[in-house]
Design brief:
Number of helices: 3
Distance between the termini: 52 Å
Number of strands: 7
CATH class of one domain: Alpha Beta
Structural class: alpha/beta
Shape: globular
Strand content: 25-35%
Order of helices and strands: HEEHEEEEHE
Strand order of the largest sheet: 1-2-5-4-3
Radius of gyration: 17 Å
Helix content: 10-25%
Largest sheet: 5 strands, mixed
């Protein structure tokens, strides 16, 4: 139970208030049982605004990337400071991991996502549309790869 609503109820609300929004409940079989909502990327920003404005999920404590074999994924942990509840975990997926790796930036909704989205851009190659300052944060500007991807091959030690 989160914010007095189950994840299923939050999913239904997103789908009813955002026509065309696709939301899938992702179950987690680990001991934490921290289930999440996978939101289609076309409605990600609108869904984030609804979660903040109507459900009072006003704080994003963590945003991180996951490298799956077929796509890249962002995972956001949301809390309501006012209601002292959470987390509600939401996910956004890229279409693939090669040429369609754009997701909407959620920084306009939760400013705390800014550096974490930059880190995902730098290390995984996820491009965040609408991000206010999307540039590398850990690797240098001339670096052309994404070292946290599972298929990353580091250069030989004798090369710069």
């Amino acid at each position: 139970m989160t914010l007095g609503l189950t994840l299923g109820e939050i999913s239904s609300r997103l789908q009813s208030e955002l026509p065309g929004c696709q939301v899938e409940l992702v179950t987690n079989g680990s001991p934490s049982a921290q289930n999440s909502l996978l939101i289609d990327r076309q409605h990600g920003l609108e869904a984030a605004r609804l979660l903040r404005d109507e459900l009072q999920l006003d704080y994003c404590s963590n945003a991180t990337a996951v490298d799956w074999p077929q796509y890249l994924e962002m995972v956001y942990h949301l809390f309501s400071i006012e209601k002292k509840e959470g987390p509600v975990v939401i996910r956004l997926r890229t279409a693939n991991r090669t040429d369609d790796v754009t997701l909407p930036s959620l920084t306009p909704v939760w400013r705390s996502a800014e550096f974490q989205e930059r880190e995902a851009f730098d290390l995984y190659g996820i491009v965040f549309a609408g991000h206010p300052d999307l540039r590398r944060i850990l690797m240098w500007e001339g670096f052309t790869d994404h070292p946290m991807r599972k298929d990353y091959v580091p250069p030989p030690e004798d090369e710069p």
